[in-house]
# Entry
Amino acid sequence: MQFARLNGVTLHYEVTGDVAHRPALVFVNSLGSDLRIWRAVIDRLAGEYAMLAYDLRGHGLSDLGPLPLTIADHATDLAALIEHVGMRRAIVCGVSAGGQVALALAAARPDLLRALVLCDTAAVIGTAAYWDARIANIEAGGLDAVADAVLERWFTAAFRRPENPAYAGYRNMFVRQSAAGYIATARAVRDADLVAPAGRLALPTLCLAGEADTSTPPALVAALAALIPGARFELIEGAGHLPCIEQPAAFCDAVRAFLALPVTEMTNVSH
# Structure
């Protein structure tokens, strides 16, 4: 395990591959998860990229730090971590809340990035009422009180079979996160509006959506792609909110294909 003290908090991270000689690929986890959601993707891309995955503040083994917490705070952490591990011109891939962090990083520190992969995310996710209701449920009953509803959005019915040990394992991951950390980032997502930064983005961007995602449905992800100049949009079949878990091979294929394009072809002006 690797840890760094940055911006007054300790962040847990893992680096895979040769940072000095491989293209840099950075993964940002979703609300209620940690860097383990990327394991199947990292295993498939090993040897092709130098990869950085980490736990957002208040998630996994990372500190929560002072409150309130914003998406901009998460982006500041990520910028410091990318510099700490010596990466340059990284491709940053974020899912859900992690996608908002990636967008905020691109707005604040475009010098650190080469391209973006925004997975199952949006410039605005949910409504204040939606997030306030979820936060109230967690405050009353802990993460277990919302786990089944959240994981119904995360995964397809085929994945949520009781006999699937992976589903049980990811449910354990969710309920064992810090409730305080979850609430802090839920409030950050509730208050985030990245419409304007998305419209100013000047980086090659791929927007991916699980076809069965009900948290950030494909139409919402496509709307994000429409906001970003030249962004490409693709569906991943057989996946809900976290294609990196349900369909890691298809996820990797989409990322590889996008990054293999000449820079002049990375954008899709017609969407």
